[in-house]
Amino acid sequence: MSSRRKRREVGPASGAGLVRFFEEVESKVGIKPYTIIWLSIAFATSVIILTYLTPYIIGKP
């Protein structure tokens, strides 16, 4: 049975359980990176457009 076990290196960080903690954590949010990029581009574009349109909306050209 011991021949089937994976051999782990024991170092100061892994001995304290710090490395293993981060290996076991899985992401709960399932957003793709491209979605975040497109949302940030859309947000930046809307901010730029609203910056130029705000004086005309308020009435101070």
From TrEMBL:
<keyword id="KW-0811">Translocation</keyword>
<dbReference type="InterPro" id="IPR016482">
    <property type="entry name" value="SecG/Sec61-beta/Sbh"/>
</dbReference>
<dbReference type="InterPro" id="IPR023531">
    <property type="entry name" value="Preprot_translocase_SecG"/>
</dbReference>
<keyword id="KW-0653">Protein transport</keyword>
<keyword id="KW-0812">Transmembrane</keyword>
<keyword id="KW-0813">Transport</keyword>
<dbReference type="GO" id="GO:0015031">
    <property type="term" value="P:protein transport"/>
</dbReference>
<protein>
    <recommendedName>
        <fullName>Preprotein translocase subunit SecG</fullName>
    </recommendedName>
</protein>
<dbReference type="Pfam" id="PF03911">
    <property type="entry name" value="Sec61_beta"/>
</dbReference>
<feature type="topological domain" description="Cytoplasmic">
    <location>
        <begin position="1"/>
        <end position="32"/>
    </location>
</feature>
<keyword id="KW-1133">Transmembrane helix</keyword>
<comment type="similarity">
    <text>Belongs to the SEC61-beta family.</text>
</comment>
<comment type="function">
    <text>Involved in protein export. The function of the beta subunit is unknown, but it may be involved in stabilization of the trimeric complex.</text>
</comment>
<keyword id="KW-1003">Cell membrane</keyword>
<feature type="transmembrane region" description="Helical">
    <location>
        <begin position="36"/>
        <end position="58"/>
    </location>
</feature>
<comment type="subunit">
    <text>Component of the protein translocase complex. Heterotrimer consisting of alpha (SecY), beta (SecG) and gamma (SecE) subunits. Can form oligomers of the heterotrimer.</text>
</comment>
<keyword id="KW-0472">Membrane</keyword>
<dbReference type="GO" id="GO:0005886">
    <property type="term" value="C:plasma membrane"/>
</dbReference>
